[in-house]
Design brief:
The complex is a heterodimer of chains A (421) and B (468). By secondary structure, chain A is an alpha/beta fold. Chain A is built from 15 helices and 11 strands. In chain A, 43% of the residues lie in helices and 9% in strands. In chain A, helix 11 (288-303) packs parallel to helix 13 (330-346). Chain A is elongated and about 90 Å long. Chain B folds into 2 domains: 6-113 and 125-183, no CATH class; 187-273 and 353-467, no CATH class. The chains are: A alpha/beta (421), B mainly alpha (468).
Amino acid sequence: MAHERSTRDLLIGAPIPDAGAERAVTAKTLRDERRAVRVFAVRLLIFCAPLVLFVVGIELLLWRVGESWPLNRVIRFQETNPRSYFARGTLDQGTFRYKYLQILRRHPEILVLGSSRMMQFRAEMFGRQASTFYNGGGIIHSIEDLHTFLDRLPTEATPKIVILGVDFWWLNPNERKESIDSFAVGVEVEGTYSWQGHANALAGYVRHPVSLRDLFTHSFGKQFDRNAIGLAAVQHHQGFRPDGSKRFEIKLPATPEEWRHRLPGKKIVNKDILGENFPFAFTEGVPNSLLDQLRAALLKFKARGVFVIGYNPPIASEWAALVSTSPRHKEFWKEYHEKVPELFRSVQFPFVDVITPQQIGLDDRYMRDWYHGHDPFDMEMLRRFCEEPQIRPLFPDVPAVADKALKSPRTHPLYLDLREQ
Amino acid sequence: MSFTTPVYLIFLAIVWALYWQLRRREQNILIVCASFFFYGWWDWRFLALLITTTGIDYGVALAMGHEKDRPHRRKWLLVSLISNLGVLGFFKYFNFFTQQFAHLLGAFGLSANPVLLQLILPLGISFYTFQALSYTIDVYRGRLKPVRDIVQYFCFISFFPHLVAGPINFAKDLLQQFERDRHFDRNEAADGARQILLGYFKKMVVADNLAPFVNTAFGDVAHASGWQLLWATYGFAFQIYCDFSGYTDIAIGSAKLFNLHLMRNFAYPYFSQSIPEFWRRWHISLSTWFREYVYISLGGNRTSKPRQAFNIAVVFLLSGLWHGANWTFIVWGGLHGFFYLCYWLLLPGREEDEAGSWFMRLLRILCTFHLVCFAWIFFRASSLTEAWTVVSKIGSDIIALHPSGVQFKILLLAAAVCLFEWLNRRREHAFDVARWGPVPRWGFYYAMVLIVLGFANLHYVPFIYFDF
């Protein structure tokens, strides 16, 4: 009901419109009223019907491509489809929970732990041990995460060997915590059931109706890939394989010039490092308190009978050169290189320094970007691990697998031919 | 449960469907149960506080009803005032006044270690306390007979649409509605649905999209430029308006679905041509409350001019303090009081001057808007020092005449709000399109629903007035 008023009527405490004179309630008025309510409700439903159809239609398509599958369903599907891969495009990926649930279900004997920079170790690299491997890369971003993970992990799921990538920012007390995803929070997130996630997906299609066509074509017909679970998997052919490693669809550079410009130039490197953006906050050096926390985590592993292989994940050579000479970073960088290996050795665990591709005889072409190595890099690195007397007996098949894969004519810096393994 | 979550819409639909199947008595019981459920969804512990404090008022009013002579009634009123203001003061102002007292002692060279409490402010306490007080004061003044039916009383206090952030309703208006039979009115319900849609548009599209920019600028005043802070101030003016009036629209719209009328709280305040007019259009329920129960109690207009000026100043300072325990709010109230008194003293009787050319009217609107924006700086800043930094940075950058960082997002959202409101400025709310034909009307509804779906900021941004 519209109540016309001029601005002059807008006095403080203007009287509330009268709800009408009292009417006697009889059985008839009650019946009439209920009928009117029903009519109103039906009109409202008719109004909402196209909107509901739109929402339900999108939800069905999202289900069809696996985007809104609950994580347990994804895991079950991957168990029976070894070539499948999982990556959501609009809902929360739930990496922490997805990988943690996988670890609980698979009880791997060889477990990779660390950030996204450890995601390229693959089960096939371990030969006959492949079935006992899982890559938990992407769930540990700090020493605190490592403790939380260990405290939460049930005894029966404890692995025998952990390959632990110690990112340099773990040892930097000034790195802003909000820049890092935390395991404690992430492990509770099941993006499937978040209404904000679904509403965001919907909002995306309202704002860009053209992308609906994409969703539709990827849900049916030639572009539908039944091994791809999730929108990003379907559209970009990337995602987590059942072994936890990440598959990427890489566009190969065609010319040497393209190879050279594939990684970001010096200007960007300078901006991030000298601008002290994440993960390059200034710090005086590696504090003993953080080293003590790392030692405590390693001792926890040891107490549970786990053998830990430590390493520092790789970065591109240009970046390494700058960070090791920058006046505000070089001290920390030096201490990181000295004190972390020392700490591992003090608890009788090996530590392998493979911070730049050059250290294992490779070059920057083997980097997917300037701080992520790619599959051939990790294969080469694993072979390098096996040169250590403490590690060699643990992975008996790795040298042979590495020889075969790296010598394959199909292998190149961004692709590792593991198909025959 | 927040209005901006889908669970509220589900809750509303269920309560609405049940409500119209029941008779008056059962309807009231349903409203009380639903309202307690709604409030308890946040934190059930505060439900006990709500029931206890407002329950005391119910008893006090009944006791006053039995008393004939005023002094005895006054004693009962005192009980109500002490219990309500005591609880409010304890939760909201204890730490503030303790700290101020310690500072005062410090000024005299005495040291004190104030005991500060870790208290969570119960949601909506300022609103329901004032609403309950309006009831006991009206009963004390003999304007209202105490209600015997406790269900009706709790319907009035806790009716879920207004419970958490108003509007603050008066017993004479709302309580009576629970005593009468309500009849379903299709037009009223449709208008309620429209107003709910308007509320979502204002809150989720405008206010929540402005919030990140405003929060960034005011969150790091030291590093923000003067122009950035100026845009943030304009942004905040629209953010707080759309946030609060959006909440009110959803509340009033929800109540209309039950054929219940809540008090109007906003009447296009940024079209005001003077500060006194602004206060007749902004947070109307609170200004009415202060007028009825503070200004009139202090003597109102029946006193000398200096005394009237004093009364006005007191009302504005208290209104500032009501918003929060911080000097910034008190200064904000003081500034508005000062502006109000300037108009009142220098331009008596011209506060609502509709005469003059459109240009003069526009000029007056712009002047008023900028005075209000100036005061918003103090409202939004976390301290007086910070507010002063904002003012001085804006001042120095404007004088330097190097405009930078024009925020088109703010301009676009503000323009959208102003356009809707200007077109419907003589109607109750900006989405009042009942007079349109069915096709354009439904087209408009679909367009607005899609805009809300597509452009809402879905990261949960709490309503600003939940803090008060």
